[in-house]
Amino acid sequence: MSQVVYITLEPSESDRVDDVPKRQPHWVHPNLIESVDPVKGRQIRASDLIPKGTRVLVDHPYAIIPVVDEPAANEDLICSNPACNRQSPRHLGRFLCSNACIPDVAWCSSTCRDADKARHDFECTWLKRYAQPIRNKWGEYDFGMLWLIVRLLASRDRDPHGENVAPKTQQWKYGWSGIASLCGSSDTWSHEQVRSWTTLVKKYLRDSPVLPHGLTVDRVLHLICQEEANSFGLYPRETGIFPPPHPPVDRGEQYAAAVYPTAAIANHSCMPNLIHKPDQDGHMVFTASRDILPGQECCISYFDLTKYTDLTSRREHLRKSFRFICQCERCISEEPAKETNEWTSMPMMDI
Ligand SMILES: [Zn+2]
Ligand SMILES: [Zn+2]
Ligand SMILES: [Zn+2]
C-alpha cells in the first residue's frame, strides 16, 4: 500500500488575484446524524463519541450577502462570487459591476467577477431598480432580507435540483431541497409581520422579467419565513463559547448574513456543546466545545452569550427574535422554583 502525503499550501496574496478557489463541498463528521424530536423537530445528534475540539460540520452557504456600512470604503466587504466569498480588502483592489448596480457588489479579482457573471446577471437588474428605493423606504434590515431572498432564488435558478453541490450521501439534504425542507412558516410570526412581508413580496419579489423565478407570492412569502427562521449572521469571532470567557470577548461586528442548508438544522442551547464561526470563505464551521456523548443533541447558541447573560434577558431575546421560550438545561436550572412556561420550540438562527 502506498502512502499518500497531503500538503496544504496557504494561498498567498498574489494567488488571490488570479485564482477562483474551487467550491468546497459540504462536510459532515461521520458521527453526526440528523434526527427528529417529537417536540423540537429536526435536530443534530451524535451517533458516537465526538471528542472536544473535533470539527463536526463545514457547510457552504446557499446564499450569502455582505452586511457592512459604507461598502465602498469598508475593508470587510466579501467577494460576490459564491465560489470565493473571501473578504476583499479595498487595498488589494476590487472589481465592481460594469452596470454599477450597488456598491455592496464587488469581486476580489476579474476572474471572480467573470466566473460569477451569469449568477450576478440574475440579481443585477433587480438591485439596480429596487435597492435604493427599498433602503430609503424600508431600511437596511428589510433590504438585506430581500436581497438574501433574491440570492436564494439566484442559486436555485443556477442549480434547481441542487445537483452541483450534493454529495450523494444518505440523509443530509443539500442545495434547494435543503432550503425547501427548512422549518419556518407564516404561523410562526405575528400577523402584522406576515402582512408586512406580504406587501414586500408583492411589491418587490413577484415573478417578473426583472426577477424571473416562476414561484407564487405565497411560496416566496414562505421562503422569507424560512430565511428569517434559519439565517446566520457572520461574525469574525466564535459564537457560543461556554462558559463565556472572563473578561468577556464578544464575537465582533457582523459582516455578512447567509443561509446554510445543513447548519440551519442545529437547535439552540444557552450552554451549547458546539461553537460556530465562519471560515475565510464564508463556510460555517461547527466545532465541539466539549466531549459529546453518543445520543446527545448537538446545539449551538443563536446569540452572543456574552451579551445576554441572565435567564430573563436570554429568554426575552429568544422570544422576540426567534419566537420560542428557551427550555435548555441551563434555563431550566436557573428558573425560580414556581415558574412554568409553554414550550414552543422553533429551531431558528441569528441574523
Ligand atoms: Zn473572489
Ligand atoms: Zn450589477
Ligand atoms: Zn436556554
Automatic annotation (TrEMBL):
One Pfam family, short name: SET
InterPro entries: H3K4_H4K5_MeTrfase (IPR050869), SET_dom (IPR001214), SET_dom_sf (IPR046341)
SET domain residues: 30-303
Listed PANTHER family: HISTONE-LYSINE N-METHYLTRANSFERASE SMYD, SET DOMAIN-CONTAINING PROTEIN
Protein name, as recorded: SET domain-containing protein
